[in-house]
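User: Hey, quick favor. My workstation is busy. Could you predict this chain's structure for me?
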Amino acid sequence: MPNPIKSVTIAARDGYPVGTTMFPATTETALARLIVAGATGVPQQFYRRFAQYAADKSFEVWTMDYRGVGLSKPPSLRGFKADFLDWGGLDLAAVVDHLTHRSEAPIVMVGHSFGGHALGLLPNANRIAGLVTFATGAGWHGWMPPLERIRVLLLWFVFGPIVVRYKGYLAWSAFGMGEDLPKGLFYQWRHWCRLPHYFFDDPSMDYLRRQFSAIKIPILAINATDDRWAPPTSRDAFMKAYQNAFLESMTISPEDYGLSS
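Assistant: No problem, here it is.
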């Protein structure tokens, strides 16, 4: 009989409670511990079918919610402080810490969008043996198709600020884009998305270039040609920061699979 799926609360590096779920490998010995590092505003529940599939393939899988999202959100986001650096350097880093002490099996990551950024934000990235990431890009509107550029600029400078001012947080769910997000994270995200190479073009984040260049593991970055937010050009603009990793890029098109989108 397979081991049950478990909900586990892990203390982030600053003590904040992070909600995670462990999907045990269906074999006696796990090939690796696999962390699913999700996208901005996407709760871990979204990845449950992938997690179970990977568990059936002999991986011990951990999904998680960053602070402010899903099982890691407070009663109210109004006044709640969190940003992307917290998500990577405090929350995800604590999950890596937790797994480091569980067994000798290697730790690998699957990233979705922000999950591909998060590897380079980890202070303990040296514990990760490999990364596969999907839909990771630089976030700049200039990499997007023309119509999407207009929509994104309206979000950043018109609708988003109005909602944040009224609610005290970004009601991301009102745009059908995922879970609501803390105010500070919205403004940080908007600032970096104004830059062609995201936070690498922010002088105050110069240290991140060194962190990313220190990573020397295998990375596979997969992007779809019809992804309006992270097309392959956006991926290439961001992922080149992993300059010393064994980086492979893969581009997939709907027509390759007989699909319209």
